[in-house]
C-alpha cells in the first residue's frame, strides 16, 4: 500500500491514568495518556505533564505522585479530571481515597491498580515536563490478580487514541510476548 505523509503530530495508543498529587493542600487528580514505565530496576514510571496544569505544581511541591488505573466504568469521572483544573475546581471529593507510604501521593480506591511514586528526575521539554518517579508501592484489587499478578482483562483499563480523542476497552488476547517470535530466531 502506498504511504501518505501525515505530519509529525501522531500518538501511540495509550492507557489512560489518573495522576494524583496534592495541590493547595488538597488531593487532586488529572487524566493523563502520556504515561509509561521507563526503567526496569528500580521500577520507574514517567508522566508528561503540561507546565500549566495544577498537577505540575503539585508534583514539584510534594516530590511525589500516584498513578491510578481507572476501569472503563470510571470513564465519566476520568474524563472530568481531564476537563477541569485543580487550580479552580476541587476534585478531592470525587473519589474515596487511600494512602500508602507517601502522603503527597493520594490513591483512588475504585481504581483496580494504583501506584505511589517518589519523584527522582525531571526532564524539561518545551511545553511539558517529564516527571520520572520510582514506584515505591503498588496496590491491586484482589479479584484483579491472577497468580498474584495484575490481570489486564480483569482490570479493564481505559485505552485512549489520539488525535481522534476516543476511549476504548482492551481488545482480544493475541498471543504470548517474548515467545510469539521465537520460531524466527536463528537456530531455533
Ligand atoms: C483523556 C485525557 C488525557 C490527557 N492526557 C494528558 C497528558 O498526558 N498530559 C497532560 O499534560 N495533560 C493531559 N490531559 C489534560 C489534563 O488532564 C487537563 O488539562 C486537566 O484539567 C489538568 O488538571 P489539573 O490542572 O488539575 O492538573 C489529558 C486530558 C484528557 C481528557
What's this model, at a glance?
The protein has 188 residues and is mainly β. The protein has helices spanning 54-62, 75-81, 152-155, and strands at 14-15, 17-23, 26-32, 35-39, 44-50, 64-69, 97-98, 107-108, 113-124, 128-140, 145-146, 149-150, 158-161, 166-169.
Describe the fold and architecture.
Residues 12-153 form the Flavin reductase like domain. Pfam families: Flavin_Reduct. Belongs to the flavoredoxin family. Its cofactor is FMN. The chain has a single domain (14-184), classed as Roll (Pnp Oxidase, Chain A). The protein has 188 residues and is mainly β. The chain has helices spanning 54-62, 75-81, 152-155; strands at residues 14-15, 17-23, 26-32, 35-39, 44-50, 64-69, 97-98, 107-108, 113-124, 128-140, 145-146, 149-150, 158-161, 166-169. The protein is built from three helices and 14 strands. The site of flavin mononucleotide has 22 residues, from strand 3, strand 5 and helix 1.
Write the layout of secondary structure elements.
Elements: E1 14-15, E2 17-23, E3 26-32, E4 35-39, E5 44-50, H1 54-62, E6 64-69, H2 75-81, E7 97-98, E8 107-108, E9 113-124, E10 128-140, E11 145-146, E12 149-150, H3 152-155, E13 158-161, E14 166-169
Antiparallel strand pairs: 1-13, 2-3, 2-6, 4-5, 5-10, 6-9, 7-8, 9-10, 11-12, 13-14
Flavin mononucleotide is lined by residues 16, 28, 30-34, 48-50, 53-55, 79, 82-87, 128, 160.
GO molecular function: FMN binding
Cofactor: FMN
Protein name: Flavin reductase domain protein FMN-binding
Amino acid at each position: 500500500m502506498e504511504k501518505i505523509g501525515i505530519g509529525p503530530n501522531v500518538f501511540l495508543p495509550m492507557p489512560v491514568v489518573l495522576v494524583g498529587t496534592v495541590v493547595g493542600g488538597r488531593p487532586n487528580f488529572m487524566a493523563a495518556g502520556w504515561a509509561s514505565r521507563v526503567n526496569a530496576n528500580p521500577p520507574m514510571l514517567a508522566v508528561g505533564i503540561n507546565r500549566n496544569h495544577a498537577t505540575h505544581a503539585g508534583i514539584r511541591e510534594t516530590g511525589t505522585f500516584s498513578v491510578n488505573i481507572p476501569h472503563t466504568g470510571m470513564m465519566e469521572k476520568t474524563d472530568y479530571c481531564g476537563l477541569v483544573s485543580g487550580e479552580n475546581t476541587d476534585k478531592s471529593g470525587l473519589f474515596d481515597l487511600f494512602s500508602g507510604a507517601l502522603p503527597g501521593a493520594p490513591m483512588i480506591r475504585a481504581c483496580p491498580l494504583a501506584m505511589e511514586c517518589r519523584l527522582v528526575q525531571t526532564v524539561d521539554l518545551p511545553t511539558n515536563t517529564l516527571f520520572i518517579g520510582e514506584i515505591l508501592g503498588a496496590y491491586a484489587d484482589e479479584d484483579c490478580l491472577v497468580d498474584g499478578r495484575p490481570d489486564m482483562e480483569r482490570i479493564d483499563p481505559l485505552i485512549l487514541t489520539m488525535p481522534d480523542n476516543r476511549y476504548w476497552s482492551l481488545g482480544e488476547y493475541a498471543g504470548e510476548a517474548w515467545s510469539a517470535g521465537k520460531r524466527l530466531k536463528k537456530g531455533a
